[in-house]
Task: structure prediction
Amino acid sequence: MTTRELTMLASIMALVGCSEVAGPAGEQALQVTVRVVGGVGGSVAVAASPGALAAASVDIERVALVLGGLKLETAGTDGTKDWVFAQSVVVPLDLAGEPVLVFDTGVPAGTYKELEVSVDKLEAGNPAEESLIAAWPELADASVLVAGTVTSEGASPRAFTFTAPLDIDLELPFESPIVFAGDGDPVTLVSLAIDLSGWFLGTGGLLDPSDPANRSAIESNIEASVEVHQVK
Result:
């Protein structure tokens, strides 16, 4: 295991709190990372289009996402059954664009044709998620947390926190079925790419995240910004 992999794992464990990645980094058959695209430095700034009458800029300083687990769908060729990893994980995103390792797990031997990844809210009252909600109270009954500042024309920046109970199911059909045979499997790496640059952009300019009237449009932008890719 490289020094970089150890550092990445330590950072995830410290930030995720009570959630865990499933196994030591760099040694398991299936790895899933989350990566921000469009981020610069430690924040993501979004400027309004010329003539916009609402907010002049939004500075995204912190983003956390809840992944509800994984599913590998059998190719149906050798008796393999679908495999499900159902543990929720809270992922604090690296706004500078460094991939965050979220799942690193062994897979039952078999042949699989598709990976499914879900973004799903933490449910208040669910005993299995109580520890996560205790660590991330803002994510109770939510799957996305965004915090930062919004600035209106001629005004001082105002802090905002935006949460949403989005339920996003992402499917990644493999180009050809992948066979997992057990120890010594090559790593299959999957990446979720999230483009934050359009989250607060509307047809008429910038969407102020502190205005409830913009909630539906912002939620639609977030859903549209998440893609999943097989890296290798």
